[in-house]
Amino acid sequence: MNLARAFVTVSGLTALSRVLGFVRDMLFAAALGAGISADAFLVAFKLPNFFRHLFAEGAFNAAFIPMFAGRLEGEGKAEAKRLADETMAILLLVLVVLVVVFEIAMPWVMLGLAPGFTDEPEKFALAIDLTRITFPYLLMISLVALFGGMLNSTGRFAAYAAAPILLNLSLIATALVAYYSDGIGAGHALAWGVTLGGVAQLLLLLANLSRASLMPRLLWPRLTKGVRQVLRLFGPAALGAGVVQINLVIDLWVASFLPTGSISYLYYADRVNQLLLGVVGIAVGTALLPLLSRQIEAGDQNGANDSQSRAVELVMVFCVPGAVALTIIAGPIIAVLFERGAFDAADTAASAAALVAFATGLPAYVLIKVFAPGFFARKDTKTPVKVAVVGLLSNLAIMAMLIWSLGHVGIALATAGAAWINGGILCYILIKRGHFKPDARLRHRLVRILLASALMAVALWAASWAMARYVPDTKLFEALALGGMVVLGLAVYAIAGQVLGAFNLADIRAMVRRRAPTKGT
Fold first, then answer.
1. Which residues of 107-132 are buried (b: 16+ CB within 10 A; e: fewer)?
2. By C-alpha distance, which of 355, 362, 361, 359 is closest to 277?
3. Rounded Cα distance, 369 and 277, in Å
């Protein structure tokens, strides 16, 4: 299993998914704007995703993948598949019960999730209806995550990385229906798009499991020895993921009391910020966990440290300049992507301010994705919980200081600040335990990445100044100017980075040719 090869596969497919996601969100903005329907739908979309991170991509896979990969490495495919079948039986039982309970109790759930909606009965009732439609998505996407973990552990990364593309295509189709019907029933159409997208993702993963001879068997749920081991790891990981989700629930809870549109502003800003987080951070984290798990199981500590160093290097090459660019040209990005239909200039300004705040934490969000596997691969799911609690308390403290003066922007800044605290502590603990020692190549290149990003910032600031004064105020010219700024920023960074030694273009070409990066400075 090759980290560079896996990164190229996952990041390439994730990039395609994110591009489709932007198309989807552009249609969201045009059809829903930032009003009642938008806020209600975005809450309905968020709730199953909260639990998805708890049962699927976050805690569950943090517990399951090291066990599955370890059994695959040590006992073979048949024993690993048996563990997966036994685990799926328990997971499916829990998910079915959870979905049924939440469908019945949705009015009380919504009262706790978005209490500010009660001041607008129409919004509150709509949020309940839409969430009842989207919540079964939780069951399907959790199984998708389990199956994706199995495929990733065997070096098959493409199917799981491609699955979100199907969700985005489903939402694009339903958003088009909503847009061309003048917004009539837009929220309901999009809610059904979420659930149908989940069905499509599940079918894709099942087809790939069948080709890999890993097709799951439906067993009667039993607490076997292997399942109990997974659950012992899952418990602390679930607490940690739960803390992260509590952070998100608190953000939503507070935003529900802010003026209508605040939830939408945060959503659109976060979607732009999530581009690099998904393409780079999640891609590296997805590839790194099974790789580290197998290296540690084989006793290859030097290899594990090299993998961790290369992962940090990879994400910083992309995320530092990405964060700088987002803070400088946030306004043009939001305007070009979303300002049309029901989404006006005031919505653009409010969303851009939130994007600047989110972008200050972008490298930290990504580093958390890189450092967490260093614990999970060693079957330590407790330490990240303790660190997550510190992050939660930090988020609350920062938000309490900023919310009254900055509104929704204060929520975004609190999220960014808490991410830096969380990522910094994870890094410190790994280093202190001897599980991560940044090598000479990483230390050498980090300083130069910062210098190259600073030069790019100067170029983008000058281009932004010129755009504001000389580019005609039309969508076509704004889009062309934004494209020009992106090309300029990339060119300046690429040239400066190569000259300064921030990265070696030969490494990138090696990844594209699916070889590991070259070693050395």
1. eebbeebbebbeebeebbebbbebbb
2. 362
3. 9
Give the model confidence (pLDDT) of 173-206 as tens digits: 888 887 776 555 778 888 999 999 999 999 999 9
**Region of 452 on the Ramachandran plot (φ > 0 left; ψ -120 to 50 alpha; else beta):** alpha
In order, the DSSP letters of 99-124 are: HHHHHHHHHHHHHHH-GGGGGSHHHH
Query: d(Cα 64, Cα 238) in Å, to the nearest integer?
Result: 12
In this structure, the chain runs to a length of: 521
- Is 510 a residue whose pLDDT tops 60? no
Tokens 């469908």 found at: 103
**Which token pair is 73?**
């490495």
The DSSP secondary-structure symbol of 35 reads: S
Q: What is the pTM of this model?
A: 0.66
Q: Which two tokens stand for residue 416?
A: 């960014």
458-473 as b/e, with b when 16 or more CB fall inside 10 Å? Answer: ebbeebbeebeeeeee
- Tokens 């530092």 locate to 320
- Amino acid, res. 39: D
